[in-house]
């Protein structure tokens, strides 16, 4: 037969090819007929015998718990950069994201970059606000750093605006990373 190695699964003592459903030579040589198993032993590979309702309810509870953890960790990661990773036990990533987002945001504020207000009649102003608000708690500290107001007449102020927006984008990427880790899609 043209069977790919490793495509067989064990079913009781019999090895069955998952693609064709045929028994392998090992079972045929042992003289064990295919019909000697009871119906309970002939359940499909990967499923427990029975209706599976208990397993389905347990799986739903685990999924709901993971999504609640993911939501909580994502909100925490947005508010304080690195906090979501810290809650998930990723100390190194937490420190890196806090330092990266904090460093970019504070540098942008010190360069007197423009912090966009929440309400803007301009679509680009709204996008700027969303990028700035992505820095979480650093957005609310911006008033402390911007006592003199933004200075975009010089190149440094323009660079500062870009640094603040970059900090927000990096923090949003950190939030997505936290969601991936918390839901188990990434280790």
Protein topology:
Blueprint lengths: L7 E4 L2 E4 L7 H6 L22 H27 L3 H5 L3 H20 L12 H11 L3 H4 L1 H4 L9 H28 L5
Antiparallel strand pairs: 1-2
C-alpha termini separation: 39 Å
Q: Give the uncertain stretches in residue-range form.
A: 7-30, 46-58
Query: What is the percent of helical residues?
Result: 55-70%
* Helix and strand composition category: mainly alpha
Provide the spatial order of strands within the biggest beta sheet.
1-2
- Total of DSSP H or I helical runs spanning 4+ residues: 8
Basic shape: elongated
Mean pLDDT: 74
What is the number of E strands? Answer: 2
Beta-strand content:
under 5%
Oligomer: single chain
Provide a descriptive summary of the structure in words:
The protein has helices at about 25-30, 55-80, 85, 90-110, 125-135, 135-140, 140-145, 155-180; strands spanning about 10, 15. It is mainly α. The chain has a domain at about 65-180. A two-stranded antiparallel sheet has the order 1-2.
Which features would summarize this protein structure in a list?
mainly alpha; 4% strand; 2 strands; 8 helices; 187 residues; elongated; 56% helix; two-stranded antiparallel sheet
In short:
By secondary structure, the protein is mostly helical.
